[in-house]
């Protein structure tokens, strides 16, 4: 994500997709959620006191949610901004860490309370032992699809501040049900109704789409015939889309169960590869028949494709490190994984960019970034 933030404008392939379709950047969030699920299977391998484990899980989720609220709520501003603090009337309520906190707490509670005690001799026994967790994942998926494709989205309006005037109003014509376009989807409508449009992310990813941007897939001036929704706030980590994030975390949890209950390397690998390829085949089939892969909406096809890819990558790294002992090539990733939250805070709060900009020769523009040819 550091590469996406700093180089995404120059390399569209690593930037987020403006709407339908996926790029390299669109796999990052699901991979985080997937590995959270894997880790939970190991963390709750034994739960001597379910109430105490629940208390600690809730407290950890609340801490994570609060950190996300501080980092992405608007308190920390850009490198060139001299202001700080956030207007509580406009604070962004959802974000990356908030989504992880939601998926984490639901998955943790499932692992603490909905884990069977059946003996495990085969993959079928594993499914039977965790059938209630799988049932929760199925119910969550059905609820998500019911809201996405069954909710009626009426016309709506929004206002934005523009130079030279106070506010400019826009009207978005919808009156549809089950639309998955940027302007009239149920994900955005639910966020506007529950969170309030003033609490949503103000730089929507679809502003880079062909309908909106002259320089698509990069940001640029609005097209003369741009739709009215192009500048409307939209949260890529909204409420309804975070429901499917829970499913990704639950899938990772099942992969972690394989480590806990099976000891042979090849047996583990096969039990990871089979569902991974199955999810990828199903995902591309759904995408082919119209249920497009879409990260902002976190569609079912997107969830399956990213979870399947995460499973393949996980199996590959496991084979490289655990089976064949090649740990040195992954040393940097291991260090980053150990300090992931610290790195995220340094970048999200602009602490690292400000630190780099802070050392210069005679004039502020002669800083370290200019010395290495960045931003010259």
From TrEMBL:
TM annotation in the entry: 27-45, 57-76, 96-114, 134-152, 239-260, 272-291, 297-321, 341-361
InterPro entries per UniProt: HGSNAT_cat
Keywords: Membrane, Transmembrane, Transmembrane helix
Superkingdom field: Eukaryota
Record-annotated Heparan-alpha-glucosaminide N-acetyltransferase catalytic domain positions: 23-109
Pfam family, one: HGSNAT_cat
Cross-referenced PANTHER family: LD22376P (PTHR31061)
Record's protein name: Heparan-alpha-glucosaminide N-acetyltransferase catalytic domain-containing protein
Source organism of this protein record: Oryza brachyantha (malo sina)
Lineage: Eukaryota, Viridiplantae, Streptophyta, Embryophyta, Tracheophyta
């Amino acid at each position: 994500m550091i590469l996406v933030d700093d180089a995404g404008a120059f390399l569209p392939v690593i930037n987020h997709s403006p709407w339908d379709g996926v790029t390299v950047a669109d796999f990052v969030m699901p991979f985080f959620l997937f590995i959270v699920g894997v880790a939970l299977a190991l963390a709750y391998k034994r739960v001597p006191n379910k109430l105490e484990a629940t208390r600690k899980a809730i407290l950890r989720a609340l801490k994570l949610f609060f950190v996300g609220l501080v980092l992405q709520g608007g308190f920390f501003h850009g490198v060139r901004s001299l202001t700080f603090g956030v207007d509580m009337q406009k604070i962004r309520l959802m974000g990356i860490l908030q989504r992880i906190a939601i998926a984490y707490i639901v998955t943790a509670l499932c692992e603490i309370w909905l884990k069977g005690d059946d003996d495990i001799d085969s993959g079928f026994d594993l499914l039977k032992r965790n059938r209630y967790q799988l049932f929760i994942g199925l119910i969550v998926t059905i609820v998500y699809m019911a809201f996405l494709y069954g909710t009626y989205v009426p016309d709506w309006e929004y206002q934005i501040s523009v130079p030279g005037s106070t506010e400019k109003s826009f009207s978005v014509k919808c009156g549809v049900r089950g639309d998955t376009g940027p302007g009239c989807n149920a994900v955005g409508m639910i966020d506007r109704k529950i969170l309030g449009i003033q609490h949503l992310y103000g730089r929507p990813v679809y502003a880079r789409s062909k309908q909106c941007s002259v320089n698509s897939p990069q940001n640029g001036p609005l097209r003369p015939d741009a739709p009215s929704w192009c500048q409307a706030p939209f949260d890529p980590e909204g409420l309804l889309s975070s429901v499917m994030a829970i499913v990704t975390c639950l899938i990772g949890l099942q992969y972690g169960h394989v480590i806990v209950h099976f000891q042979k390397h090849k047996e583990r690998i096969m039990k990871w590869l089979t569902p991974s390829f199955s999810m990828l085949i199903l995902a591309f089939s759904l995408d082919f028949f119209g249920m497009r892969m879409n990260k902002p909406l976190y569609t079912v096809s997107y969830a399956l494709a990213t979870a399947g890819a995460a499973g393949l990558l996980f199996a590959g790294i496991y084979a490289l490190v655990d089976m064949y002992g090649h740990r040195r090539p992954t040393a940097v990733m291991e260090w980053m994984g150990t300090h992931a939250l610290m790195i995220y805070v340094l970048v999200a709060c602009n602490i690292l960019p400000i630190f780099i900009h802070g050392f210069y020769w005679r004039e502020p523009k002669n800083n370290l970034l200019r010395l290495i040819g960045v931003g010259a």
